[in-house]
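hi!! sorry for the late reply, been swamped w classes. u asked for the two structures so here they r. pasted raw, havent cleaned anything up. first the sequence of the first protein and right below it the tokens
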Amino acid sequence: MTRPPIAAPGFVDQDPLLLRRLLRAKDRMDAASHEAWPVRRLADVSGVSEAHFARAFKQAFGVPPHRYLLTRRIERATALLRDSTMPITEIAFETGWASLGTFGRTFRDITGESPGEHRARVQAAAHALAQVPGCIVSAAERPGLTTAVSEKRRRKAADINASSSQEVP
């Protein structure tokens, strides 16, 4: 007796055994988002080829593995900025970034504000959020990475170039 494919969005027509393997890799990323997770390592965890893993992961979860990992790192960083007094440099390294500059630039590209600005804003609003459950606050602050960070940068540069060329009489 064969089981029918899971009918949830993104899971249509995927083999349940493959989905279980993809979830294993996703769980490993969640548990250790501060570690490096190249596609080769994730594919090894899942027991499939790199290309197959990348395609299947995006089909199942709606985002490529690297973007999923970025989301987890930024979520962890926002929680640490909100709930701790750790220096921003320490937060950057604890959440898996190799340099403070890369962390700050990526954080700003995704959230629209620098880590320091984010910390100041959430700490100023902390008294208003005291009555809201933490899971709701985390869900509301989850970064929306539907567009790649590099694509956001290209669009921003195109907007700047278009506005500067229109200013010339």
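now the second protein. again sequence first, tokens right under
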Amino acid sequence: MASASPSQVRASIARRALDPVYLIVGDDDAEMLRLATDIAAVVEDELRAFNVERLYGGDKGVSAAAIVESCRLLPMMSDRRVVVVLRGERLLKPKRRGRAVEDADDEDGGEPPSDLDVLDEYLKRPETSTTLVIVASDVDRTRRVGKTLFKNATVVECWGLKPGKDARIVDLRQVARVAEQLVRQAVTDAGQQIDAPASRLIAERAGTDIVRLRGDLERLLLFTTGKPKITLADVREVVSAETAQDDWAVTNAIQQRNAPEALRQIGLALEGGGVPYMILGQLAWFVREKLADPRRIPAAIDAVFRTDIDLKSSAGDPRVLLERLVVELCG
């Protein structure tokens, strides 16, 4: 098994020296998706429609055979084809069958033939002109295809803040330190500064949940756009632990063009169990029926439509997608 860090893979992308198969595994969904997108970006912009294909494990028609068939296609007017399989755990870690059936398989000396066999064979002899990227939260290493994947693929682990998974985190005491480093780096990349108590609070609130940390960071950076320094008050405003909510508070804040309050209310709605698609439906109704300024309506409808597509295609964290929409609607 060849292992690589995200930075090492990005260095390979810069050299256009990609490996034939990558397995990106972990719980840091945002980083995993970014890395898969960076790999696909090695194909020229104008040729991606022909040479980049995204498939979702578990979707109708997405089987091991379909993935291999896509990988076998030759690049069109390019030297590289990229096939990205998202939600790979749905394909590589299916539900186990009954215990009696598994015991019978063990007595026969292995697994029975399955659809995954064709993928197993491909992983042993992949196409040199295609890069297959499998993004998964987990892989069953006891299955034949799992063993082959770890043996033949370049494995990139993105475990966020999990002690024992990230080499920088030996125990829970180091989680907050690494989380603060991630916060400061993200703020620096955005061209801003952050007070030490502010970075400490947002790191402590996330604990070992990298998804929550990245979501809070996205909201914080949206909220403080244009500010040179982020303060403790900014963090408290964005990552408030309040849970009381008003069903129409989000739309009321949008009507008033109060982006900070709209972001806060979106957070309360989701943390209170709100379903992203239902919240989007409410925002769409508001845009069509209640948006007061007719000059804002065309752009607002376009923003709702794009968010709907992104939600359905899993193009990002639902919370972040809704928050970006809210910022756009506030204008």
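hope this helps!! also noticed smth abt the second:
Residues 297-312 form the longest helix (16 residues).
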